[in-house]
Amino acid sequence: xxxxxxxxxxTLALVYIRVIAFVFLVPIFGFRxxxxxxxxxxxxxxxxxxxxxxxxxIEPVSVSSxxxxxxxxxxxxxxxxxxxxxxxLLFDAVFIAxxxxxxxxxxxxxVMFLPQQPQTTVLAGFMTLLAATLFLTLGGAEIVIVxxxxxxxxxxxxxxxxxxMNPEEFFKLFYESFTFGFKLSIPILVVAxxxxxxxxxxxxxxxxxxxxxxxxPLQLMVGFVVLTLALxxxxxxxxxxxxxxxxxxxxxxxxx
Length: 256
Hints:
mainly alpha, single chain
């Protein structure tokens, strides 16, 4: 039974630091302020911290000085930040795919009409929401919470060593996430390339046609048709990638 002594309260505070540092970097838990208000994100972080604290069976740590407490808090923040950043790379890859597709479809200029929103394209936001929906459908949130609970068994409070990580694996994961974002947008890229080539040929042989007036509606129409046809395949590819990526995140959380 957990007593409300000073060591238990400090242990709970350290758990909060790890969980909240993780939560605030992941889009589905409230990284983007337009999805969830700040008070909701804070409440969610504190609720998850309480769940992790009581389910992980953490023994209260004894802190002898404020310097030791600051050192442990820094370690916990680094662990939560690193884990959240690695999971965020998954959503950033999908976000980049949406940005690439939007620019090649001619939707990049729409940011001018949404000044109150962050400077992102509508398609990038749609792809991020799609990724979040698939992530929740796969049980990703539950997997992440269980991984956070298990992380305290393999990385106890103050036991994380940032310099012990393999930098090659970290940069490989970083590179593969952005490569995946490019691969996901290949159907739109290919169709946009052929559309521009056709418009260039038309402009060459029929210079009377204003390709700038014809090209943008044509790019939008062709892009939306191809996106509608390719979206189920993108979903299948994204789900397979998420499953593999989640296994890597869980391995990191449990110290494998």
